[in-house]
Amino acid sequence: MPKTLADIKKSLDCHLGKRLHLRANGGRKKTLESAGVLRETYRAIFVVDLEQEDDTCKRVSYSYTDILTEAVEITFLDETKAAIAK
Hints:
There is one protein chain. The protein is α+β, with helices and mostly antiparallel strands. The protein has a single domain (5-80), classed as SH3 type barrels. Helices cover 27% and strands 47% of the residues. It has helices at residues 5-13, 64-68, 77-85, and strands spanning 19-27, 30-41, 45-51, 57-63, 72-76. β2 and β3 (45-51) form a beta hairpin. The protein starts with a helix and ends with a helix. Mean pLDDT is 86; it is low at 82-86. It holds the Pfam family VEG. This is Protein Veg.
C-alpha cells in the first residue's frame, strides 16, 4: 500500500469508475462492508457510490488519511478476479 497521501490519491485516480469492496470502521465496534463504485477523487477526499438493495445509491466520502491509518480498506473487484484467473 502507498505510504503517502499523494501516492494514495494517484493510485485511486487510476481506478476511477471501477467496482470495489469497501470496509470501513463505523465506530463503537461497528464495521461497514459494502460494494460500490469509485466515482470521484478530489484534493483531500474521494467519493464512493455504494450499492443498495432497493436500487438506490448512497454516496459516501472518505479522506486519504482514512486509508493511510487503515480506518478504510478498499479492494478493487476487477483486480481480484484477474488475480484468481492467473
